[in-house]
């Protein structure tokens, strides 16, 4: 995908932008995710700090959203929010940065590969490449990712 840059030496760096709020950032880079959040009555602006991994629109194409129960849908959306930790572009692009972080009570891993920076579900059954990054004045960082992360409820 051309909108994703690897963030590794010798390749294009991840793009960094700014937005006035988390909801504006999500709407800007992931309108389909923003629509699903709105339908579930989840507002990214309620975060005082934290990180949002926003799946790009194309990520929903093969994802079985319509087959999920309402509770699983909401759990899936909330899994993309890390309220305990604000990750920065510098954090995740540092080759030495590898750790599990908490997403709604479940772990997400960050790893580096020749192809870029990836976030992975704690169960290891889904991963997504990190693309564009948007910082907000409220301290929330929004990362565009190329796949929907699956929480362990799947």
Would you write up a description of this structure?
α1 crosses α2. The relative contact order is 0.26. The N terminus is likely disordered. Strands 1, 2, 3, 4, 5, 6, 7 and 8 form an 8-stranded mixed sheet that branches. By secondary structure, the chain is of the alpha+beta class. The protein has 4 helices and 8 strands, in the order βααβαβαβββββ. It has a single domain, classed as FAS1 domain (Roll). A hairpin with a 2-residue loop joins β5 and β6. Helix content is 20%, strand content 29%. The two termini are 26 Å apart.
Give the CATH architecture.
Roll
Summing up helix and strand content along with how strands pair, one would put the structural category as: alpha+beta
**Overall pLDDT level:** 80
Q: How many separate domains?
A: 1
Helix count, DSSP H or I runs of 4 or more residues: 4
Whole-angstrom Rg: 14 Å
Largest sheet: 8 strands, mixed
Task: Spell out the blueprint of helices and strands.
Blueprint: E1 16-18, H1 22-29, H2 31-39, E2 50-55, H3 70-78, E3 81-82, H4 89-93, E4 100-103, E5 106-113, E6 116-121, E7 127-135, E8 140-145
Parallel strand pairs: 1-7, 2-8
Antiparallel strand pairs: 2-3, 4-5, 5-6, 6-7, 7-8
Helix pairs in contact: 1-2
């Amino acid at each position: 995908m051309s909108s994703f840059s690897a963030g590794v030496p010798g390749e294009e760096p991840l793009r960094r932008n700014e937005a006035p709020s988390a909801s504006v950032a999500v709407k800007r880079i992931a309108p389909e995710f923003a629509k699903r959040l709105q339908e579930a009555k989840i507002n990214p602006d309620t975060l005082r700090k934290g990180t949002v991994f926003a799946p790009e629109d194309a990520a929903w194409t093969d994802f079985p959203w319509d087959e999920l129960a309402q509770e699983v849908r909401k759990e899936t959306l909330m899994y993309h929010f890390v309220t305990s930790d604000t990750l920065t572009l510098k954090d995740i692009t540092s080759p030495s940065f590898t750790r599990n972080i908490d997403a709604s009570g479940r772990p997400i891993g960050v790893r580096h590969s020749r192809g870029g920076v990836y976030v992975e579900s704690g169960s290891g059954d889904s991963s997504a490449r990190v693309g564009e990054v948007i910082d907000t004045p409220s301290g929330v960082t929004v990362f565009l990712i190329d796949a929907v992360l699956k929480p362990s409820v799947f």
